[in-house]
Specification:
CATH class of the largest domain: Alpha Beta
Protein name: Glutamate carboxypeptidase
Organism: Cylindrodendrum hubeiense
Shape: globular
InterPro entries: PA_dom_sf (IPR046450), PA_domain (IPR003137), Peptidase_M28 (IPR007484), Peptidase_M28B (IPR039373), TFR-like_dimer_dom (IPR007365), TFR-like_dimer_dom_sf (IPR036757)
Low-confidence stretches: 1-90, 100-124, 131-175, 207-220, 775-784
Number of domains: 4
Mean pLDDT: 82
Keywords: Membrane, Transmembrane, Transmembrane helix
CATH superfamily of the largest domain: Zn peptidases
Pfam families: PA, Peptidase_M28, TFR_dimer
Radius of gyration: 37 Å
Strand content: 5-15%
């Protein structure tokens, strides 16, 4: 019965003492149950009033005595003529005892919110209210003996003697209360009851009963796992996801700016409001650059007067408006080189090394020229386009967005569609993230105050020539001026820019183009990561990490705030579960990274600052970046995640297709892709050895890194109704539950062994294709001197050990089931060892020797995963081997094959149970 339906525990008109005994009006606080909370967790008015009355039974004054002296009786007796029913109230001694007993009975300790007991109540359905439970001792009620009947005849002398006060007795009672038989009985019984309760509690903990209860699977003190999954899926709110995207994309916030700091404060506030256990802001000092308003120019110069411009590019996008603060971001390249250079314009298609070599083979001189290349294509990494131009002798590089790759030839353009419009500019960093990741001035260590720093000119992560991005609206003029200069472009080089009737390469006779890029450079610019944490109850040091970057080149509705919305929603849902009494077995960490767009800085600095702890304790990292740009689900990551990912996809229904995501995945014959160097998973997977997973819903396209990537475009064209934001949140929520709260972490070790075998075969085939293109001598040397047998044998050992290792899970199941669902201490210790070994396997694939890692890119330690040297966004399985083969050093390649095989064999030995 809720409090509102209970009779009040006090009477509005004070009764006489005899009336109170006759009606037996009593209130027992232990019979009262708190009313359900509102969805916001606030107490309702009745509960607030009841709790106030519970703490202050006598009214607002807080006294247990009413104004007329009436005090509600609290110790009951079945006898009519009891001590409390006697008319002899003139007896001071009896009255004193009665008052003391009543005070002991009526005063209750304050019942505060919040539970210190972290174990879960189990096989219980998930409560619909937020609750906290604190154990309390039972109240003991005893029947006191009646006072003996007074003698029939009282002598006058005895009466007078009783009436005369004793000065010594009065003085004694003032300093130490007189304890009679009744008081002694009460104190003794309560002390005895307290000893019994304390003894019982001691026995519980001494027998490790709570440990066993917390480790039980499918029963005991745990929430029902199925109830948790259903609750998480049903708790996702598309309206909240929409609100997050709208809020964070309402103003520009490049890393290190005021707008960026405002987003950090917002995320901190949201994590705190979610009720996470810990929320922290972590600051680093890093190298960043910023554009100057009049510091950038792309101009065609008068051939007669190279100081006079006959045309100048607009550079900036049309003002989109609508931002709540600040201004629209200027078009520029992060980490670009300052400079003001001039030279003949030469078109080089996508700007790959092979295409620059083709220009050289055609006799086109490129030294001192200005390169014009387009985004995407044979060289997807913009930084490597600039680096390839630098190595080919160019003085500067312009990168434009071609409609054949990202524009009207693909479909409707923004703001009426998802593709890049004529004035759209793709900003981005040109730091060499596949060579150096993180702060380019502190490669390999954290950028904290007092740490050593390189000079920008010394950093291998920075390019050596200036560059700028351009819209095809401006590139059209440049391409038209190339007509008749150089050679007609090879097949496949012609883009989709309209009104360019002939495509020419250009040469030293081409129009002179000026590229100006004067900027502000800050060696130690503060950036801010924001962390939130839910501490695990069984293995608090072991963590499942989910991360998303917060900074953006412009407004960033898709990149990154489709991912930000999911991250915030996960913090809200799991924080709400925490308030309902749930707690995961392992710690969950929510990470909002800064300066990702500038070379993955925030996440990398965190990893470098916590490297030993992550290698020992981080079980998994889930990355959200450009989480939703369409409706097709894609995933890339360690094979460890295959089993749990498919399990999650099988539970999530696509309302458009009316089938599960698993069915769509299987219909495409999709697999987990490899991880290159595209987002914040790089430092976790390749440096810390933390198994990582990157999740996206992909579509046809979106105006990447442009000011057109706004909330309205997301709502109207990319994800109307935020349906796929909802589905992504469900998938991520299920993954977090599986990884953080399953007794056995659902890693797929057999899948890892199988994928290793496929990758070794692909490596061997790649090597054969490389050598077959060389001359006869190199081809012969390649076939006879390089052997992959040692590597294949190591992979077979992994496969053998993984299959035997996974059988232990069946042993665990049978032991727990045979014991009625209870997990004994020894089997629990084996389970924790089993989980730790699965996590340690990925870490064991790191090359941690002094100077180890990929040659000349020693930040990258993983022998299996890593970015390609000249295709940074793409994965390169066995990157160290591929680099040495690309360099043509066969002996070094064979040594690295042997070293890689030894590391894989060592990792295979991890998959052995000691028991």
């Amino acid at each position: 019965m809720p409090p509102s339906e209970k009779a009040p525990f006090y009477d509005p008109i004070p009764p006489t003492y005899d009336e109170a005994l006759a009606t037996s009006s009593r209130y027992d606080p232990d019979d009262w149950e708190p009313a359900p909370r509102s969805p916001t967790g606030e107490r309702n008015a009745l509960e607030t009033e009841s709790q106030s009355l519970l703490r202050n039974p006598g009214g607002a004054g807080g006294s247990s005595r009413r104004s007329d002296g009436y005090r509600a009786p609290t110790v009951e007796t079945d006898e009519e003529e009891s001590l409390w029913g006697s008319d002899s109230d003139s007896d001071d001694e009896t009255a004193q005892v009665r008052r003391e007993v009543q005070e002991m009975e009526i005063e209750e300790p304050d019942r505060s919110r919040g539970s210190l007991w972290g174990k879960r109540m189990g096989f219980l359905s998930l409560p619909q209210w937020k609750w906290s439970w604190r154990p309390s001792l039972p109240r003991l009620r005893i029947q006191l003996p009646s006072r003996p009947e007074a003698p029939a005849a009282d002598s006058t002398e005895d009466t007078e003697a009783d009436a005369a006060p004793d000065p010594e007795a009065t003085q004694s009672r003032q300093w130490w209360p007189k304890i009679d038989r009744t008081t002694a009985i009460i104190i003794g019984v309560r002390a005895f009851a307290l000893m019994i309760v304390l003894g019982f509690v001691y026995l519980l903990f001494a027998s490790d009963l709570f440990g066993g209860l917390s480790d039980r699977i499918g029963g005991g003190f745990r929430f029902n796992p199925e109830d948790l999954r259903v609750h998480v899926q049903q708790s996702v709110d598309p309206r909240r996801l929409r609100a997050s995207v709208q809020h964070f994309s309402s103003y520009a916030h490049i890393a290190g700016t005021e707008g960026d700091y405002a987003t950090a404060m917002d995320v901190e506030s949201m994590f705190s409001r979610a009720g996470l256990d810990e929320v922290v802001i972590d600051e680093y000092k890093v190298y960043l650059n910023y554009p100057r308003k009049d510091g950038r120019a792309v101009q065609i110069m008068d051939s007669k007067d190279s100081e006079k411009a006959i045309w100048a590019a607009k550079l900036e996008e049309e003002e989109r408006g609508g931002e709540t603060a600040g201004r629209q971001t200027y078009a520029f390249h992060g980490h670009s080189k300052s400079g003001d250079v001039k030279g003949p314009l030469i078109y080089a298609n996508y700007g790959s090394r092979e295409e620059f070599q083709l220009l050289k083979d055609k006799g086109i001189k490129t030294k001192g020229a200005i390169a014009l290349v387009r985004y995407y294509g044979t060289q997807g990494d913009r930084a490597l386009k600039v680096k390839a131009a630098e190595l080919a002798g160019f003085a500067g590089c312009i990168i434009y967005s071609d409609p054949a790759d990202d524009g009207f030839l693909k479909g409707s353009v923004a703001p009426n569609g998802p593709w890049m419009p004529a004035d759209g500019v793709q900003r981005g960093a040109v730091s060499l993230m596949s060579w150096v990741v993180g702060d380019v001035l502190t490669p390999g260590w954290e950028s904290k105050e007092g740490q050593p720093r390189m000079k920008p000119a010394e950093s291998p992560g920075l390019v050596g020539i200036p560059s700028l991005p351009l819209a095809w609206r401006d590139a059209q003029i440049l391409l038209q001026h190339l007509k008749g200069h150089g050679k007609k472009v090879p097949t496949g080089w012609a883009g989709g820019v309209p009104d360019v009737d002939e495509w020419w390469t250009g040469d030293e006779s081409s129009p002179i183009v000026r590229l100006k890029n004067e900027q502000d450079e800050v060696d130690q610019q503060p950036i801010w990561n924001v962390y939130g944490k839910i501490v695990g109850m069984e293995q608090r040091s072991k963590s499942i990490i989910i991360g998303n970057h917060r900074d953006s080149w412009a407004f960033g509705a898709t990149d990154p705030h489709s991912g930000t919305a999911v991250l915030i929603e996960m913090a809200r849902i799991f924080g709400d579960l925490l308030q309902r009494g749930w707690r995961p077995l392992r710690t969950i960490e929510f990470m909002s990274w800064d300066a990702e767009e500038y070379n993955l800085i925030g996440s990398t600095e965190f990893v470098e600052n916590n490297l030993d702890s992550l290698r020992e304790n981080a079980f998994a990292y889930i990355n959200l970046d450009t989480a939703v740009t369409g409706s097709s689900f894609h995933a890339a990551g360690s094979p460890m995640f295959r089993k749990t990912l498919l399990h999650a996809l099988g539970r999530v229904m696509d309302p458009v297709s009316n089938v599960t995501l698993r069915e769509l995945w299987d219909g495409r014959k999709a697999t987990l892709d490899g991880l290159g160097a595209g987002s914040d998973y790089v430092a976790f997977q390749d440096i810390a050895g933390t198994s990582s997973l990157d999740l996206t819903f992909e579509g046809g396209g979106h105006p990447y890194h442009s000011s057109y990537d706004k909330f309205e475009l997301m709502e109207e064209h990319i994800d109307p109704g935020f349906v796929y934001h909802d589905l992504m949140s469900q998938v991520v929520g299920l993954l977090l539950l599986d990884l953080a709260d399953r007794a056995i972490v659902p890693f797929d070790m057999s899948s890892y062994g199988d994928r290793l075998e496929g990758w070794v075969n692909d490596l061997e085939n790649w090597f054969k294709s490389k050598t077959s293109k060389r001359d006869g001598k190199s081809k012969k040397v390649g076939k006879t001197d390089i052997s992959f047998k040692e590597l294949k044998d190591a992979v077979k050992l992994v496969q053998h050990n993984a299959k035997a290792f996974e059988k232990w899970e069946m042993t665990w199941d049978s032991k727990v089931l045979s014991n009625g669902g209870w997990e004994a201490n020894d089997i629990g210790a084996e389970r924790l060892e089993y989980n730790n070994k699965m996590s340690l396997f990925e870490t064991s694939l790191l090359d941690l020797e002094l100077g180890g890692g990929v040659p000349n890119r020693t930040q990258f330690k993983h022998v299996v995963f890593g970015p390609q040297l000249w295709s940074g966004y793409d994965e390169a399985f066995f990157p160290a081997i591929r680099d040495t083969v690309d360099a043509g050093d066969w002996k070094a390649a064979q040594r690295i094959i042997a070293k890689t095989a030894a590391i894989i064999r060592k990792a295979a030995t991890v998959l052995e149970m000691t028991a």
